[in-house]
Design goal:
nine-stranded mixed beta sheet, 9 strands, Spore Coat Polysaccharide Biosynthesis Protein SpsA, Chain A, 18% strand, 12 helices, alpha/beta
Length: 329
């Protein structure tokens, strides 16, 4: 049994894939402890050709284009490691990533996931302006329901396989956001350990799944679909534990409501947008500051363009206020 299984899912990211693979092979742990699995989700570019040179240094799996969940499930079916690490094909890690991640898992046997910060960089690898607030060392399900948990994306996540198996398979409908499904549901079984340090680099470029999502009606519709699926599954798990979403501060319901309102508004379905504000914000299960959110989303229903400008302005203010600390890198 390997100590680490690293799974890279990729689709038409041939121009980035070698840097991702090289960053795994450059880890400062014994090579015999790491198995690298690349799941090619139906690429039509030169991905396979670029990977051929690595030979047995990686296991290459090719499948028809089916989305992120399918790629994760395919890779996990082949993985044998005690710890499973996920890496997006357009990202890369620092050499100490696996070593420090393993050390964090070894702090306690009930740690099911370890996460760390990822530094945003441009396609050439130049760091972008970014601040990181200090996270608590541990999160529990109670922290999540109280709205106190924050998570990194795919490339900053690692799982203890014995806990990960409890939430698999990833639902097939999650053609992206599969990472969110994993980090939300692992908390039903374990604690999450957060490392306040940068151990990788996330490329920001025009082809990112989330690039321009709020301005693209088709992408926004896909976003609504996957968020709704994640929320449905999460509520079902809560019921099994005798818990309810109502009265909690979990942000997912409000995030979904905001996306739905904007989606309907962009399609000219103003009545549906206003109904969503009424049902899911004013009288939703978790939304705090209900009146504030209802008023701002009414702007979205009436003028999506104005709402996006206000949203960008508010997001910039929040980023500027993150003075709680910076990540060590």
């Amino acid at each position: 049994m390997k100590k680490f299984s690293v799974i890279i899912g990729t689709y038409n990211y041939g121009r980035f894939i070698e840097e991702a693979v090289d960053s795994v092979l450059a880890q400062d742990v014994p090579a015999g402890q790491v198995e690298l699995i690349v799941v090619d989700d139906g690429s039509t570019d030169d991905t396979q050709l670029r990977l051929a040179k690595y030979g047995r240094a990686l296991k290459y799996l090719h499948q028809e284009n089916s989305g992120q969940a399918s790629a994760f499930n395919s890779g996990l079916a082949e993985a044998s490691g005690e710890f499973v690490c996920l890496l997006d094909a357009d990202d890369a890690w620092k050499p100490e990533k696996l070593r420090l991640t393993a050390a964090a898992f070894e702090e306690a046997s009930d740690i099911g996931m370890v996460q760390h910060f990822m530094m945003d960089v441009n396609p050439e690898g130049k760091p972008l302006t970014q601040q990181f607030g200090e996270r608590p060392a541990f999160y529990t399900l109670r922290d999540l329901l109280a709205g106190r948990a924050a998570f990194t994306g795919t490339s900053g996540l690692a799982f203890r396989r014995s806990f990960l198996d409890k939430v698999l398979p990833v639902p097939a409908g999650l053609f992206y956001c599969a990472d969110e499904y994993l980090y939300l549901n692992i908390l039903f079984h374990s604690r999450v350990r957060s490392l306040n340090t940068v151990l990788g680099f996330k490329k920001i470029h025009g082809a990112n799944w989330f690039a321009g999502t709020m301005e693209d009606t088709r992408r926004l519709g896909n976003y609504v679909k996957v968020k709704a699926l994640i929320l449905h599954d999460f509520k079902a798990r809560l019921r099994k534990e005798g818990l309810k979403l109502e009265g909690t501060a979990m942000p997912l319901p409000l995030e979904l409501a905001k996306a739905r309102v904007l989606y309907y508004a962009r399609r000219g379905q103003r009545r549906e947008a206003l109904r969503t504000i009424y049902d899911e914000v004013l009288f939703g299960p978790t939304a705090g500051r209900r009146l504030f959110h209802a008023v701002t989303l009414a702007v979205s229903a009436l003028s999506p363009a104005l709402y996006l400008k206000l949203h960008a302005f508010y997001a910039a203010l929040r980023t500027g206020r993150r003075a709680g600390g910076t990540a060590r890198g």
